[in-house]
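Title: [Solved] Monoacylglycerol lipase ABHD2 3D structure

Original question kept below for reference.
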Amino acid sequence: MSTHESDVHTLSQELPAMFDGMKLAAVATVLYVIVRCLNLKSPTAPPDLTYQDTPLNRFLLKSCPQLTKEYIPPLLWGKSGHLQTALYGKLGRVSSPNPSGIRKYLPMHDGATATFDLFEPLKDHPTGEDITMVICPGIGNHSEKHYVRTFVDYAQKDGYRCAVLNHLGALPNIELTSPRMFTYGCTWEFAAMVGYIKRAYPDTQLIVVGFSLGGNIVCKFLGENRTNQERVLCCVSVCQGYSALRAQETFLQWDQFRRFYNFLMADNMKKIILSHRHSLFGGSSLKKIDMEPSRLYTATSLMQIDDNIMRKFHGHSSLKEYYEKESCVHYIHNVNVPLLLVNSGDDPLVHDSLLTIPRTLAAKKSNVVFALTLHGGHLGFFEGAVLFPQPLTWMDKVIVGYANAMCQWEKQKPMCQSGESSCEEEKA
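Solution (posted by the thread starter after getting help):
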């Protein structure tokens, strides 16, 4: 065999091996990217809790095991905050129920019409008391969203009446009756719903629940006036950002793709606003509020929409003033009822720097517990073994578990505050 033929023969043997090596390298690279993107090596752990050592908090941690046990998300994708957030945004919840409620309409002082849906409990509350959960959903959300329906159904089955605010302008089949829609921190509609519940059910006690933007609204509402805390047993806020002004800069960063999420939320807000274009921009209302609807079409961020439209509903002179006055960070320290603040460490919408607010508050105020999970995304908190999540999430369970503990505490408060160990042991 000639030297030339020998070289060709050797090369023909090496090529398959070379291609096999390239395939293995490509597979290894893909697997590495999957492991990194899905965060598969991240551990699971119980929530990181910040709280003061008080009889109430000791009772709470014994009575609400979700706060002290390991939160285990679905193995293959649950450790990715992006996938948790995306699945919440697209699916809402798995096998969502359809609870039956009655829609209520409340005329507001400025001509607007607030609406909320009322769901009666499906059984007596374990304490025998009349308890109503007043619920404020996330941005642009309402009682028909899957995650809200799932939670309401779960709460009803545990003996709670539920009242769910429909953000002004969020329901596609309800027309606005004034040139105004919901904003980041306007508490008027939520206050109207709470007022209705207190009048219609004079013996009921309230548990306040807020999701995301709704968390900001409910904490601001409670802190605005001490009378707003009357007949309130406790409050739970999940995945809020506490300060819109501080969050503004982080929403323009590409870290954790927040700029992309900002664009998606802005696009959704544009659709909601444009669906009410006649009520908001028609006739004399455009001149009176001095809006600029033409800039809405080119807006690529929530800040642009807030500056050109949203802040003008309440006459704020600047975007900074709007964010300052509508953020709960300036009111939450006035809340004296038991308060559970829940956030996720991998929430792509809430920057880690914002979490110093609830952590500092819980360290200073004995009524506040701050729970930070490693995983969960934004309003995700799905649970499950490997691939398919369970219908109920960790978030659903922890809110009802916390509410149950607070109701038990209220019923046995004199005995618990006296320091008798039998109180904690009985309900542990």
